[in-house]
Specification:
The protein has 71 residues and is α+β, with helices and mostly antiparallel strands. The protein contains one helix and four strands; from the N terminus they run ββββα. It has a four-stranded antiparallel beta sheet. A hairpin with a 2-residue loop joins strand 2 and strand 3. It is globular, with a radius of gyration of 13 Å.
Length: 71
Amino acid sequence: MVSNGPGRINQAFSVRSSTWPKSQLRADWAYLYRAVDKRGDTIDFYLSPTRSAKAAKRFLGKALRGLKHWE
């Protein structure tokens, strides 16, 4: 998705890329963390100004805590 309107996300990565997903919101860059299910549907997402394994694990724990059955 590429859009330069206010509040729109300009994704600077491709799905097959091995780089960390990094998106641009307005003029600020942020790392995009997503929790997806088997079908590829987004369960939750988190935008962070910094790349942090601790924050990513905390986000994943919170996203999965709300689900009863997950693999």
